[in-house]
From TrEMBL, chains A, B:
Keyword NAD: yes
Domain D-isomer specific 2-hydroxyacid dehydrogenase NAD-binding: from-to ranges: 122-298
Name of the protein in question: Hydroxyacid dehydrogenase
The entry's keywords: NAD, Oxidoreductase
A Pfam family recorded for this sequence: 2-Hacid_dh_C
Lineage of the organism: Bacteria, Pseudomonadati, Planctomycetota, Planctomycetia, Pirellulales
């Protein structure tokens, strides 16, 4: 099966104890060591100069690593052909020049989409049932409901609008299926076939999407074109009793407009991402009434990070067998990454 | 189709403006008025003596009503044959003697199960992602996560245990389907066929259920046998990192034991129901770290109460056509009701 000529490429792992535990639990570590009997394993964190020295001395062809890895230097990486990154954002780790030079880089890609979709469903349900309000009111104010007619809503039968139709949205559609919702999406670059396969209505404009969505889920990519694309004008189009959820990128939404929509029109909001992270202590979002806030936890929960490890193992096998790599980062993807 | 002899039975509606808006929105009200052209409609609330006078004077055969209805008197209800109650708990409204005497009573039965199941899924996801903690921490303490390795869990692939396998649990199973969970249940009276149809493992003991559930969902009925059946012994059997959710009846769970499980073993908890409701201001549950609390909102959200109205209309049609009533309350059900 292995069409790669001997000797086997040198592979180097750099992970903290915690990263190893989450991304490569024992069964996956065993499979990795079977693939690479001469694996070099270094425990992170390492200082930058130590990292450079290791790369110079070991001359790895493959590096497998996660968050706690210093930037790859331009020098001392001449032998490096493939960086298998277990996480998402690769711009801090890999200078563009290395990709220009032909370095292959992969990341967790869509292996995490189902967990982000799960958090999206959680925030949708939380916004509809006012979980943020009640959590605070019950735990810090000794409150109880005052009426048999609470201001709560069900997801069943509502109109859900997806701003963005990438891998996370596609996974979210599966989770929404039992709720018999009507789904619309705005994502101009996605072909009709995808909309048809998912039974989603295509919106030609963001205005149409916002005006027809009881539940607006913000999952648009954080590219410059999308900066503050969601502002007063769009938010004002949301139907009465609509809820707004952002699991995508904070920069897409004008937070001042969001605060106005909450204060002036009672919009219920649930957020996992923010323009500035960590969210500033004095952010007005923290003092809104109708809001559920999470500190950017939408990504893979530690118990599902092994899925990223599984994907990495698949890619390492593909590399050894000269098969195409999954989630290969080309210059285009690199430039669009956040 | 109408096999009932003329003249049409006298039907009386007693609802508040709000109840009418929620349970019988205009389209349903129209259908009701088509069924009963001579419908008597009284706006609640009414005083008890006024209520008795109306019943004596109008002699309705059918009463359609909701929460804001005074108890039906033993006297002045000789003509009454059917009480179509739009809500759940009928013991405050209907004295047992009237059912003994042959009065037919129906309630919302399982028409609300999907909304309670929805709230169950919400509390499961909230407990796994620590929404209660973060809502309070982000909104009242200016906090942010301190690590890339938060103490959060995904529902994907976990073992879910259902204590109770009634209509709500069956609806919940549908919502859990996309999460590829393994479901077990403890409900001795439910026949094997139901377990098999739902692809649920039958637990012969509660001990087995608790010891094998990463997510324990409490949905057992509030009958006297179940009083405090969930205490220290069972809670200690839960696996490490388990979460505990109660959407059923507060009396089933020993809250002191729950507090101990949280404080001493870090159990994450999400609750919608309590032993005493409203939950006392000084309840220790309110000051736990790892908890999400709702004030008994699991029932049908106001926007889905029209489903109860639809069911009531179906029952009124059935009554007129001498067909069996759905969710008819017999003495056995009456005595078990909470």
């Amino acid at each position: 099966m292995n069409s790669k000529p001997s000797p086997q490429p040198t592979a180097l792992v750099l992970l903290t104890e915690q990263e190893k535990k989450e991304f490569l639990p024992p069964d996956l570590e065993s499979r990795l060591r079977e693939l690479f009997p001469d694996l070099i394993w270094i425990e992170a964190p390492v200082q930058e100069d130590e990292w450079h020295r290791v790369l110079r001395e070991q001359k790895p062809e493959i590096v497998l690593c996660a968050w706690e890895t210093p930037t790859l230097p331009i020098e001392a990486t001449e032998h490096l052909k493939y960086v298998c990154f277990l996480c998402g954002s690769i711009r801090k780790l890999v200078p563009r020049e290395l990709i220009e030079r032909g370095l292959s880089v992969t990341n967790w890609g869509s292996s995490i989409s189902n967990t982000v979709a799960e958090c999206s469903l959680l925030l949708i349900l939380a916004a509809l049932r006012r979980v943020g309000n009640w959590s605070v009111a019950m735990r810090t104010k000794g409150e109880w409901k005052t009426s048999r007619h609470p201001d709560t809503l069900s997801l069943f039968g509502r109109r859900v609008g997806l701003h963005g139709l990438g891998a996370i949205s596609c996974e979210l559609v599966k989770l929404l299926e039992p709720f018999r919702v009507q789904i619309s999406a705005f994502s101009p670059s996605v072909p009709d076939q995808i909309y048809n396969d998912l039974n989603i209505r295509r919106c030609e404009t963001l205005e149409d999407l916002f005006a027809t969505s009881d539940v607006l889920v913000e999952l648009a990519p954080g590219k410059p074109d999308n900066y503050h694309i969601v502002g007063d004008d769009l938010l004002k189009l949301l139907p009465e009793q609509a809820v707004f959820v952002n699991l995508g990128r904070g920069m897409v939404v004008d937070e001042d407009a969001l605060v106005r929509a909450s204060r002036e029109r009672g919009l219920h909001i649930a957020l996992d991402v923010y323009e500035t992270e960590p969210l500033p202590v004095d952010s007005p979002l923290r003092s809104l009434d109708n809001i559920t806030l999470l500190p950017h936890l939408g990504g893979p929960t530690p118990d599902r990070r092994r899925d990223c490890g599984e994907l990495a193992l698949q890619n390492l096998e593909n590399y050894l067998n000269d098969k195409p790599l999954i989630n290969l980062i080309d210059l285009n993807t690199y430039d669009r990454a956040t």
